[in-house]
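Hi F.,

I've been meaning to write this up properly since the lab meeting, where we talked about keeping a consistent format for the predictions we share between groups. The idea is simple: the sequence comes first, exactly as it goes in, then the structure tokens exactly as they come out, then a line or two of notes. No screenshots and no reformatting. I'm using this chain as the first example so we have something concrete to point to.
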Amino acid sequence: MPVPVQYHEISPTRRIAYRHYIGTREPTILYVPGFFSDMELSKVVILEKYARANGFSSLRYDQECSGKSTGDQTTIEFEHWIEDALAMLEQHARGPVILVASSLGCWISTIVAQRHPERIQGLLFLGPGFNCLWTGYWYHYNLLPPEVRERVDRGEEQIKIKMKYGGWGILRRDFCEKTRDFEIDFEQPVDINVPVRIIHGIRDQDVPHEFCLMAMERFATKDIDVVYRKMGDHRLMSPQDLNLITYELDRLLKHVDALKAGQRAALPLLSRL
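Output, unedited:
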């Protein structure tokens, strides 16, 4: 049985739903969700199953406007989602943390890791989407018929996109434009100095898989691996994808544990044969 849903109140009108399994081992596995996706996706649930089977703490949540959390797509701001992630890290996660994130959540996780480097021991990114909302807005805008674009320009209508996990999401121009204040400057080295593991599907039609190479080049850490899935899409939720996600999480946790012990890497499999 999953752990019960709890709620964190940011303000009288803002409440985040989350599930927190408290284990006996560190670090805590904290999942940061993508664009309007919730914590009940199979690739999120399997992280908690892995944590429970191996004694780790697990924390997953619905960011505002998703799942059981409060929020209104007509007023939500990207900054709110950063605040949601920070609230989970600062007020609920115990001890050191491994951040696991999907899509837009990887952008948020990078910001969180830069603000709290003392807490973050590693990053596992799934189809990372950095700096994608302002360009994404204009991509979808240009697909609209001229008469719809005119209504959008007059503020009479919003761009709606069908979500991969069901339902519709609104792309507000003001929301997307404000995200530019939080874009990561990939023209400069990015101050991330922990091990990073990235999985990306070549068939991802939402986020270019080349984003992974940009992160590999610009993140300050030298300890970064990228795994491409030839048949993987943006969701990364096939049985093979889920197996790879848990494998890479397990590998990252063993690697982090070895680094804490003063080793350069976890012992190779051959050493145990």
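Notes:
The two ends are 36 Å apart (CA to CA).
The chain is about 35% helix and 25% strand.

If this format works for you, I'll send the rest the same way.

G.
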